[in-house]
Amino acid sequence: MSLRGKVTTLRDVAIRAGVSTMTVSKVLRGAGTISEETRRRVKQAAEELGYLPNNLAGSLSSRKSRMVAVIIPSISDIVFSEVLSGINSTLRPQGLQTFIGESLFDPATETELIRAMLSFRPAGILLNGGIARSADAAKLLARRNCPAIQLWDCDRRALDFSAGPSHEEAGRLVANHFLERGMRRIAYVGAELDKDLCARRRYLALKSSLAAAGIDLITVTCEERPRQAVTGRYLTEQLLRDHPGIEAVHFLNDAMALGGLSHLHEAGFPVPERISVVGFNGTSLANAVRTRLTTIDVPRAEIGEKAAQALLRMIGGEGVPDAWQARLKLVQGNTTIALGRPQGA
Amino acid sequence: MSLRGKVTTLRDVAIRAGVSTMTVSKVLRGAGTISEETRRRVKQAAEELGYLPNNLAGSLSSRKSRMVAVIIPSISDIVFSEVLSGINSTLRPQGLQTFIGESLFDPATETELIRAMLSFRPAGILLNGGIARSADAAKLLARRNCPAIQLWDCDRRALDFSAGPSHEEAGRLVANHFLERGMRRIAYVGAELDKDLCARRRYLALKSSLAAAGIDLITVTCEERPRQAVTGRYLTEQLLRDHPGIEAVHFLNDAMALGGLSHLHEAGFPVPERISVVGFNGTSLANAVRTRLTTIDVPRAEIGEKAAQALLRMIGGEGVPDAWQARLKLVQGNTTIALGRPQGA
DNA sequence: TAAAGGGATGTTATCGATAACAGCGAAGCT
DNA sequence: AGCTTCGCTGTTATCGATAACATCCCTTTA
């Protein structure tokens, strides 16, 4: 266990500085009125002993915490890193530390994470939207004693606040993009739609928008494979085999779109002349390859910032702001035909 | 603050079940000997009240914790997700929950994270190697009361245990790969080498191995840009401008290599006929595009598993195992010329 | 000069759990 | 019967901090 003897406590520091534990506590928190001389002595004693406060005791006693829990589906999903960076850049200056948990889209794992995080009585909890929440998780959240915020999804308002795009709008944007260009034979390629409910809503919105135009969306998905480039490539191969006459494809995300593009190139399908391709996210990936992917840009950092700002407001007792809807922008690349007039929302 | 009234405590459950708090505590932890009937009553009471244990109090009292702290440089770095999944798959079955912190390669941020994590008295702490550790961080770690493990780097043994590849070996593998193919005009493309000391060691090993063969490595790096595809593309452009006669390039990671490849294609440099390219990591990215990148495969999940196993052993008081060195494998793709004889270590 | 005010520090109770041990009745043993 | 043993449950002290209030002493002020 490598327990290096006894850990130093407030008491140890107090003895060394020749004051009471209360005085030490006040000095280290910058609370109360303590003379400059005592301050110095205490700080020096703490420094010499290498004192590290015990948050378990501190938070238990004060019923306050500087920890913010963030639970995301997947840390490898590039999407999330920028949301997190928006969160951190807003919370860190306020002295709040974010602790991250990864659920891998598994409701049971998410529930355990929520339980573990909440049992530390955090100052707030941020959860990704679009994951099927277990009944246990809902119960845990209902009895929480901290603000809860939903990320990446403004549509469902189960929690105190939510910041994210409307995934329905995203689906409609893609549908319009294709329809404006006269596409009729349209396909969707995705994965894990049973787990990622946000992606599923985008898909359904695309499907129903097309249906309204009399078009039957061709769907190629796979629940077992990851939402990554390899899968996009694999499913595109499958799509071309079954529906060689396809004119346009929307992918669940940019990574899958890139995988798909690589197969389209190899298979000799010119993009966008023969097939149009649209991704989702506007990640830097989209600009890293030969083709600039047409995609939907989501203001990821801003989502994190808005969520964090709302949290700060709630912690400060300033009430619960309304949900924030992120602006989406369809970014024209060279994987769909550029029209003369401006694109986007 | 949305404090939903008083949070239920052990006492509340005890009163409702008509027993003492101690009995409730024992039932919920599965400790002690409690009759089946009491067990049932307590569990039902806890369930009805939606009781959520307060870990602050529990861990404070028992001086035990089920939390494991993991601090990584960047969650967007695909590399880490598989290491983490190896960690989780080993720790979760044991009832340990991992909490992640992201340092973004910033020593000050890392120090604050270490402080925040340790102040919760975790069961263990896992840190990524290859980041310049501040003196404060070192001091914090020296006085920790839990096992500490270094990930992603087996070379430096500052902590109790370390699991990772030898980055020197990686550099040498690449050097040999180029030398075996008769390359003389060799370049390295990387970013943020001032922050990522592991990458820097790979680079230095490559450089010195080549120097031993009388070759002067051409280096193109940039400290301000991210270690991603866009940067690989940008720096490759710069490299070709300054050194059009180059024969081989090693990139810091696969993402940068893919960005570089896209520019090489556009600029009309056939790969591998005119220029050979080698990446690092063996991520799934490497197989998602037209070209199968020659790269060095690192057993990421296994690194996580070994680290977690070592942690479990140390928590169990079974002593400190020796550092574990991950096997590296140079995977021949089609971005370098295949030789007749087998490749690799 | 006595009362009031305020700066600096200490005392006590408490946060919500667990460790350690103490009780207490029923069963087993001689 | 009397004693031990064991199963079950409760009591007390404690973990390491903080909140709230109490002191103490030195200035002001009338």
TrEMBL record, chains A, B:
Keyword DNA-binding: yes
Keyword Transcription regulation among record annotations: yes
HTH lacI-type domain mapped to chain residues: 8-62
GO molecular function: DNA-binding transcription factor activity; transcription cis-regulatory region binding
Keyword field: DNA-binding, Transcription, Transcription regulation
Matches recorded under Pfam families: LacI, Peripla_BP_3
CDD domains in alphabetical order: HTH_LacI, PBP1_GntR
SMART domains per UniProt: HTH_LACI
Domain of life: Bacteria
PANTHER family: LACI-RELATED TRANSCRIPTIONAL REPRESSOR (PTHR30146), TRANSCRIPTIONAL REGULATOR (PTHR30146:SF33)
Protein name as annotated: LacI family transcriptional regulator
Organism: Sinorhizobium saheli
